[in-house]
Specification:
The strands form 4 sheets. Strands 3-6-8-9-10-11 form a 6-stranded mixed β-sheet. The longest helix has 17 residues. The protein has 190 residues and is of the alpha+beta class. The protein has one domain: tt1808, chain A, CATH 3.90.1570.10.
């Protein structure tokens, strides 16, 4: 095991952009301080990829869903999260940015992992709301697969529904439908 080297000050956006990639860990930065967690395991990654694909296929052509994009929540002090799925405009996605500004995110989704569950259900709930992101979904892959959908109302997230099985919701005014169980089914239609 090696020790990661960090600057001895709060990270700036330039510092962040110059950090070396590390395939063994997922790195985010919260108020200038690096936050490291283990990389997701295979089932998690497969579920995230499938969910991003299912959403992207149903969104209108002006919207796009993608997995593991950097999301700039605040530049000073620097806070960058890496949600499992982000829905943004196709215009932003086609620009191929290094990171997406929170103002450009219509929906963020976190799929719970043992190492990040408390952050996804706690700190990120407040950070995404403070950044003004309209919707936040939290997916729990433990059987039965379930999801909580939050919607921003007067600056705070309100529980918009708890789901298992088939889900029908709107993203940026577009109806989307998917089966949560397909996220963990290795034989689910691709």
């Amino acid at each position: 095991m090696s020790v990661l080297e960090w600057p001895h000050h709060l990270l700036t956006l330039d510092d962040w952009a110059n950090l070396p990639e590390n395939p063994k860990v997922r790195i985010e930065v919260v108020e200038g301080v690096p936050s490291v967690s283990p990389r997701p395991m295979w089932f998690h990654l497969r579920s995230v990829t499938r969910l991003a694909f299912l959403l992207d296929e149903q969104l209108c052509p002006e919207m796009s869903a993608g997995a593991e994009a950097e999301l700039l929540l605040c530049e000073t002090p620097l806070t960058i999260r890496v949600p499992d799925v982000v829905v943004t405009s196709a215009e932003v996605a086609e620009a191929n940015p290094a990171r997406i500004a929170a103002a450009d995110a219509a929906l963020v989704i976190e799929v719970l992992s043992p190492g990040t569950k408390h952050v996804d259900e706690g700190a990120k709930l407040f950070e995404y709301a403070d950044a003004g992101i309209e919707q936040y979904w939290i997916v729990d892959l433990d059987p039965p697969v379930s999801m909580i959908a939050y919607r921003l109302i007067d600056g705070d997230y309100e529980n918009f529904g708890e789901y298992s099985g088939s889900v029908e919701l709107e993203v940026a005014g577009v109806p989307v439908k998917f089966d949560l169980n397909s996220l963990i089914d290795p034989r689910a239609q691709r």
